[in-house]
Amino acid sequence: MIQSLDQKALADLLRRPHLRRLLEAFNGGDAETRVVGGAVRNALLGRPVMEVDCATTIMPDDIMRRAAKAGFKPVPTGIDHGTVTVVVDGEPFEVTTLREDVETDGRYAVVHFGHDFETDARRRDFTMNALSLGLDGGLYDYTDGVADLAARRVRFIGNAHTRIREDYLRILRFFRFHAEYAEGDPDPEGLAAAGAERQGLTILSRERIRHELLRLLAARRAEDTVRVLAEHGFLTWLLDGVAEFGRFHRAIAADAEKPVAIWRLAALAVTIEEDAERLRERLRLSNDEQRKLDAYAHLVRVLKVWPEPLNPIAIRRLVAEHGVETLAAVLPALAGEPLPVIRDNALDAFQRFESGGEPVPVFPLRGADLVERGIPKGPRIGELLAFARRNWLSEGCPTDEATAARLLRRVLDKAEAP
Ligand code: ATP
Ligand code: MG
């Protein structure tokens, strides 16, 4: 079964010069340090390995000392729970002392430092996340992770109910890892346990839920997995609202090459501005995420009452007013709905802006232009600019110099009018 996995990638991983230097400095004597978690999993799957995490028998203070002695830069990023970030020639590695859980309250575990790689593996969440790789190339698999990885199956280590009760976030991690790495249906035992323990999600912080949900939405099998979430009663709770599966499907088809989680969330869960507001609260979204959801809702509202088929002039105006990014999220999501009518010529026009072939028109007047012409600073400037901008948009956003001069003249006339 291991044949279906990329063993060569493990050897390649260990040939990375920075990692090698780190492992060589942290092995020997009675110290043992291995690569653990996502890096081993991804290498075996032939996926890109971004961050490399290591587990070690060395105690945290000693990691600091040894790292400094070896010429690395140790940063005590999470030293209380055993994690030191060791920077080797600019590349950071998280090195964590082996741990064993002592107590859990469903949210956070009290951990003690341990000495045993197997105990450390068993406190991890899924079998595919519990593999470790030694400096000599030995792959350690205490939980049948290799078989599950080969079968592309996300499975809890030990009893799924017990593991979920230790940390309810594992429910969402189960679906997130399924969405990214699995084939076929979710593991039935994990799925049943997740459903039965669902109430536990309510004790989690909104930030942690947000993190897992957004990662799930950007995952390879986001669409299937969101369906599963819906069928098993998770989705309505997560979104605190209804899901737009048609828009979500089209959004995913359009952004598959470069998924952006927040736009997928918009397509799935935002129909009106109140949805954006509610999701911000519910998931404690960042200001930037919130702005995107708002912009999405606003543009949907505008397009839903667009009276005629979108044409290239309308697209130019929409791009100037709402920006390429928002339009790139909204147009595919709404495609195929009765309104707006989106024909090929509109999509072609948008494509020219999206590819940068045609520059996004920029409104040519500034407040300073008006001040220069003697209009006193103050709220009146903003009003006049808004008036000029409306004119400019309805004229199709021309950007030549004659336009700027004409707009300015019109504004000055208006300013002088009684
Ligand atoms: P990626 O970072 O690519 O999502 P990863 O496997 O590195 O994947 P992290 O969330 O960074 O995932 O966690 C690192 C490792 O720590 C996991 O592989 C897993 O072994 C363990 N882990 C993380 N969170 C939990 C948890 N809530 N319960 C148990 N083990 C966990
Ligand atoms: Mg990670």
Automatic annotation (TrEMBL):
Tell me the domain of life: Bacteria
Q: Which UniProt keywords apply?
A: Magnesium, Metal-binding, Nucleotide-binding, Nucleotidyltransferase, RNA-binding, Transferase, tRNA processing
MF terms per GO, please?
A: metal ion binding; nucleotide binding; nucleotidyltransferase activity; tRNA binding
Q: Which GO terms describe its biological process?
A: tRNA processing
Q: Which InterPro entries match?
A: Bact_CCA-adding_enz_type3_sf, NT_sf, PolA_pol_head_dom, PolyA_RNA-bd
- All copies of domain tRNA nucleotidyltransferase/poly(A) polymerase RNA and SrmB- binding, residue ranges: 188-242
Q: Identify one Pfam family in the record.
A: PolyA_pol_RNAbd
Q: Which SUPFAM superfamilies match?
A: Nucleotidyltransferase, Poly A polymerase C-terminal region-like
Co-factor requirement: Mg(2+)
Q: Where is the Poly A polymerase head domain?
A: 34-155
Cite the CDD domains for this sequence.
NT_ClassII-CCAase
Which PANTHER family does the annotation name? CCA TRNA NUCLEOTIDYLTRANSFERASE 1, MITOCHONDRIAL
Q: Which family does this protein fall into?
A: Belongs to the tRNA nucleotidyltransferase/poly(A) polymerase family.
Any idea what this protein is called? CCA tRNA nucleotidyltransferase
The organism of origin for this protein:
Microvirga alba
Taxonomic placement = Bacteria, Pseudomonadati, Pseudomonadota, Alphaproteobacteria, Hyphomicrobiales
